[in-house]
Amino acid sequence: MSKLDDLILIRAVEEFLFFEARLLDGREFQAWAELFADDGIYWVPMREGQEDPLTEHSIFYDDKDLLDVRVRRLLHPDTLAQIPASRTRHVVGNVVLDETDGDEIHARSNLVMFEYRRDEQRVFGAEVQHRLHRVEDGFEIVLRRVDLVNCEAVHGYMSVPF
Amino acid sequence: MDSIEKLVEPSRVHRRVYTDPDIFDLEMDRIFGRIWVFVGHESQVPEPGDWIRGRMGTRQVIVTRDADGKLNVLDNRCAHRGMQVCLKESGHSRTLVCPYHGWAFRHDGALAGDSAPRGYAKSADLTDPAFALKSAPRVESYRGFIFASMAEDGPGLPDFLCDIAAALDNVADRSPEGEVEFAGGVVRQEFAGNWKMHMENACDLVHPGFVHASAVDASRDHIAAAPPGSATQQAIQMFTGNGISLEEWDALGVYGFENGHCYMDGFYRDGMLDPGMADPSFVRYREIMVDRYGEERTREILGRDTFNNLIYPNISINTRFQQFRVIQPIAVDRTHIHSYSLRLKGAPEEMFKISVRFVSTANSPSSPISSDDFAIFESVQSALANGDREWVDFSRRLGDEAPMGNSGVRDNGTSELPMRTQLNAWRNLMCAS
To answer: Which of chain B's termini has less CB crowding within 10 Å, N or C?
Structure first.
């Protein structure tokens, strides 16, 4: 690929990550979940450098079915953990492409998420890894891995995906 | 404090029990500072020299295995100036060396002879307990689960556990080798509420239909939208399991015992969550169990269908899904939950993976179930902290409980018997001189 192709690709990936962030901040959770491939995974490990989500606990480890249940619940009017609802702002930066392997693209970015509810603001920082597949009208998410800076901390309950 | 006894009546409890910092301090002394408290599991300290950090209420301890293989529970506070001797969560070392001034202690807490601090009067006796890490006078292990008591004497661990020992037996018996291991790391969560709320909620069978309605509806809607014939994974079945009717909850039993222990019957009835579990890895596991124990004993072990088993004051065990939770009081209005998966030694690894999935889904900070429970606890704490309404009501089905053959009583699932059992134990302990 030429340098120009590289720039076009990284710009397209950035656009996609920004779009994802806008969906989450706009509470368009179902549209966000639909960005995942049928075998896509949303994973927030509980330990720095964690390799296995099946023999070690995770903060989130959702396949697309679980993600669907999760976002349906977030939008349910009686979800107590969302009364009042969280207001969030995802800030995405430092986007780099690690490698491209045919149709699969590995992107890394830094994420800051502000979350406000019940008179309190929480701030989360993370490195996010995306494994994306090219599809007709853009990308689909094969893996979205969010490594929180404080993944091992004692956490209060979490509702809105990072 | 002479009014403590008046704070718990047969059918109601004063709000100060959840909100008063002085009462919390007294709990740390009279409950967590006296009775048997879980501090760790033998699989976490398998070899001499191994140690882990733990808690007995707000007391920070180190659980060690000494050169003789004996278990010790020591204060994680240097005898010298109060530094935490162990900063990491676990380790293995010949001695425990305080990072502040280098005082070194043996795994039984005594000052190590070869590190005698210099500069003390010649008459100073370095074997004086004042120079040792304070150790819990009683440490006992039951099926690998280590408990300690800060009281010099009192009932032994089996007597204290009494009928709830069956829960620890059952969780260990589910291993073909009769042993479990703590594995997969610990999940730590917190909520801004009193520790007792979590214990009282764990066998409260009226709340799921209300508090977990959103998880039930979301999973039912998901199943309805899925293509016909789609398999429904365990976690989603589990969410829908909370949606049984009040009549169905009432048909389950809740049980209360001396010393505040409780448990509830299991309620999963569909597919893989059924006690018979048709999943291929479970079928293979069952074959291994039958090889080891025989058909009849296997049926007995796997047939003990309970959900939450509560060991007073702060343990919640789900024996069927190998979940072990410790409710750690931090302050009157702050509580940590430590959740563990138990690996059944000798069972297919897939059984452990099911347990890890269960914890990551149901007992992690992102859980669609426990998030709503924690939201409730925080809301209740906030409301109880203020106002002039003094009492919290626990009268549901009061007097309807029936004695069982053992030390316990049973009632229908919607009874508030489990909370009354805990609060009665609380009052007895708090009023003991």
So the answer is: C
